[in-house]
């Protein structure tokens, strides 16, 4: 049995649904529901629940029917999901795209994903951090969509756990050209996750964050570098530099940019006296 209640300006799940024990598919999309009550728990045969385009801000899996296998919550305002063991035991597919999640956890009960999931769509959220071990309990996970989030780096340990080779989508994240991304291009094991949209990924240069390059190209040019212990970039930009004062440049300089220097008065050979060129 299927029930479509889309676009009815509902603010809460109708209490009358508790009597629909044979309901298998329920669509509550395009309403104004802002929280989950306990009404849905009584729908013991419900397999598919769609609540796209509502006003939900958090999800407690304990308020969902035990037999639920497919859950779509696209384009809500969800910042938090609550998971406790034994809840959502049969859930296999979840779509949380277009929400406001900012991290995924591998422990506790907040923003931790249920273990039985096979497909997870987290695209177009605000995820900036995925804790290492976040997928360690998700042995069945086969597909994870992380497109359009705020990830600047992604450690391999954050997406290890599934027994089958996990397929990832990562396009549209503001990655930095960091050596920690090399695993995306050079799989160490046959079971390492595979990035399906790898050719489209780009990263910003560590020494010039305004410059973005294709991730594969950055690797070929040896631009996937590890960050310094200090965030100082050691770049000196000089305008109308007096070349007789080159010796005053600090030895820590790694990049020197000279604009409008007095070359006619001071020969370019003067640069060799600078300590930064003699190392």
Uncertain runs are none
Strand content: 15-25%
N- and C-termini, Cα separation:
76 Å
Question: What percent of the residues sit in helical stretches (DSSP H or I)?
Answer: under 10%
Order of helices and strands: EEEEEEEEEEEEHEEEHEE
Mean pLDDT, nearest integer? 86
- CATH fold-level label of the largest domain: Leucine-rich repeat, LRR (right-handed beta-alpha superhelix)
Q: Identify the strand order in the major beta sheet.
A: 1-2-3-5-7-9-11-12-13
> What's the CATH H-level superfamily name of the largest domain?
Ribonuclease Inhibitor
Secondary structure category? mainly beta
Number of strands: 17
How many helices? 2
The main pleated sheet reads as: 9 strands, parallel
CATH class of the largest domain: Alpha Beta
Give me the CATH architecture of the largest domain, please: Alpha-Beta Horseshoe
InterPro entries: Leu-rich_rpt (IPR001611), Leu-rich_rpt_typical-subtyp (IPR003591), LRR_dom_sf (IPR032675)
Pfam families: LRR_8
Keywords: Leucine-rich repeat, Repeat
Protein name: Leucine Rich repeat-containing domain protein
